[in-house]
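User:
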Amino acid sequence: MQKTIDINKILHSKMGDKARHVPRFLVNWLKKTVHEDEVNEFLWRTRDEEGVVWLESCVKYLEMNIELVGKENLPDPNDGKLYTFVSNHPLGGADGVALGAIIGRHYDGKFKYLVNDLLMNLPGLAPVCIPINKTGKQGRSFPQMVETGFASDNHMLMFPAGLCSRKQDGVIRDLEWTKTFVKKSVQTQRDVVPIHFSGQNSDKFYRIANICKALNLKFNVAMLFLVDEMYKNVGKDFRIAIGKPIPWQTFDKSKSAKEWAQYVKEEVYKL
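Assistant: Predicted structure:
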């Protein structure tokens, strides 16, 4: 079985020869935390699948019980228009997989994700991901990825918060949404379809995320635990609510793009 996720190789690529000084117990802990063996077994078993078919296999593998509300609000695939789908991001992995499976099936695979570097190397996702500039860092090439996506003849699926939801004052909610989806949707005349995904990670995850924030750590340590959170959510029930499309003309000069982004976020949490 070929390893897609290899902690030893990842450490070596990030640290070079210094990787051999990382204590074995820490390497083993990392392997266990990212479920290296289980993930590789699944990726090997589904190695001949890609795109929507692979995403649907993921949903099945994670035993996600999905209640879909407002499916009639998904625009007709044959109306000749392109749309921007935006959602809150409570889970940081399984939510993206489920939404990709639903939207991908409805639009016959004609959609693209903007993905983080955690998901970028998964072979099954390749056909629905926007290619990244291999020479630059992710941050530098992000505007290029956005341009590529919106210039294509694909629907766009975005999580405007970027990071998955955090627990603040006892409430699990997305961080501030970025304005990119508003600006690009207006520019390319795409209506925006709001989506709300119910679900949450463990209290432990939110504690770690808040500690990292308090310590002002540059590396997103919480991301290491997202795979573990995904396995903790196996077999759970999720409600996905799709709202009515918001015409791109709505986003006029009466508010800034940043304010319109927060407006859409508020609409999502009403669904």
